Amino acid sequence: MTSDSNIQRTLSLGQQIVEMGRRLWIQGMTPGGDGNISVKIDQYTILITPSGISLGHMKLDDIVMVDFSGDVIGNTGKPSMEVNLHLTAYKLRDDIRAVVHAHPPYATVFSCTSEEIPVNLTSEILIKVGEIPKVPFAPPGSIELARLCEQYVINNDAFLLSNHGVVTLGRDLEQAGSRMELVEHISKIALLSRNLKSIEYINTSDMEKLKDIKTGLNRENID
Predict the structure, then answer these.
(1) pLDDT score of 219
(2) DSSP for 116-156, written as a single string
């Protein structure tokens, strides 16, 4: 790939981050400057949202490039405080090329309780996202939090951060962003369904069938 092609690809990925930031902000998932998004350029560098800027009001020039040590390259911006969490995902899983962290309100409710998000309510959440476990609490932006996330990154495509928010991973930014929306969607369904007299969950046998579908889709994407 030529240098000009590399530049154009990097600019395209940066613009995708800007657009995803706006998309999540419009849906109320990143209030008050919260949340962060990154994409992997190659095995050496990533693009990540800046610290202290609303994801709904970013410009392409705001996006920060960092190497896998977390050092800023190419500009003088300050990366999100969660850069270590993002780098952890890229270092542990070669198939991951985008990470989204947001604070969607319904899903964040579950991050603040002892209850798990019930993924046995709809077929789509299990096929497209899978189980959504919760990482024990650690201060936002800390090395401790990044380390606690390691086992969840390896085994899951989405997980809650206790008393904090949600992280989703994807083979590209569209998949990671869509998974964030799906996590919020199932969380809302779970909470609203409690107002009804009875809830019908997907049985264990059918859950296994859905897991097989997810495994098959993942294999197709990798191969």
Answers:
(1) 65
(2) PP-TTS-HHHHHHT----EEPP--TT-HHHHHHTHHHHHH-
Choice among 82, 115, 131, 220 that is catalytic: 82
Q: In b/e form, how buried is each residue of 145-167, taking b as 16+ CB within 10 angstroms?
A: bbebbeebbeebbbbbbbebbbb
- Establish how many alpha carbons lie within 13 A of residue 196's alpha carbon, considering only the half-sphere containing its beta carbon: 8
Tokens of 118: 């019930």
Q: Could you tell me the residue ranges of all domains in the chain?
A: 3-222
- DSSP state for residue 73 in the 8-state scheme: E
**The pTM is what?**
0.94
Q: Rounded to an integer, what distance in angstroms lies between the CA atom of residue 13 and that of residue 182?
A: 22
Q: Which CATH number fits domain 3-222: 3.40.50.720, 1.20.1270.20, 3.90.1150.10, 3.40.225.10?
A: 3.40.225.10
User: What are the two backbone dihedrals, phi and then psi, of residue 202, each rounded to the nearest 5 degrees?
Assistant: -70, 130
Mean pLDDT by runs of 10 across the 223 residues of the chain is: 81 98 98 96 96 96 96 88 98 98 98 96 95 98 98 98 98 98 98 89 94 82 50
Q: What DSSP element (H or E) covers 177?
A: helix 173-193
Residue 115 a catalytic site member: no
Number of H helices, E strands in the chain: 8, 8
Pairing mode of beta strands 134-135, 158-161? parallel
The pLDDT assigned to 223 comes to 37
